[in-house]
Specification:
Distance between the termini: 61 Å
Radius of gyration: 23 Å
Number of helices: 3
Helix content: 25-40%
Structural class: alpha+beta
Largest sheet: 3 strands, antiparallel
Length: 98
């Protein structure tokens, strides 16, 4: 049963989390590949990459973007952001209600 579960997930890359010795969450990418795809008993290689800092940075960036959007939409004046060709790339809620 356990071997069937492994076979279904190999080879592959999964984003998972672990607890370190202090109980803190560590986000990792876990990559696994069987040495012999026909015979899993030969062994499997695993590569682990700590992505904790990257995940925290992504979460902080997402929170900041949400704050910015909330503030942008709360402005009562109509505002639109244009690209270098004068195309609207974003506008606030007041602009959409004109």
């Amino acid at each position: 049963m356990y071997l069937d579960t492994i076979r279904q997930r190999l080879p592959g890359i999964d984003a998972v989390w672990l607890l370190d010795a202090d109980g803190a969450v560590i986000d990792i990418l876990l990559s696994s590949t069987p040495l012999d795809p026909q015979d899993y008993s030969v062994g499997v290689t695993f590569t682990v990459l700590d992505i904790t800092e990257r995940k925290r940075a992504e979460e902080a960036l997402q929170a900041l973007a949400q704050k910015w959007q909330t503030t942008f939409d709360a402005i009562n004046d109509s505002i639109s952001l244009l690209d270098d060709r004068s195309r609207v790339v974003q506008c606030n809620r007041a602009m959409t209600e004109l």
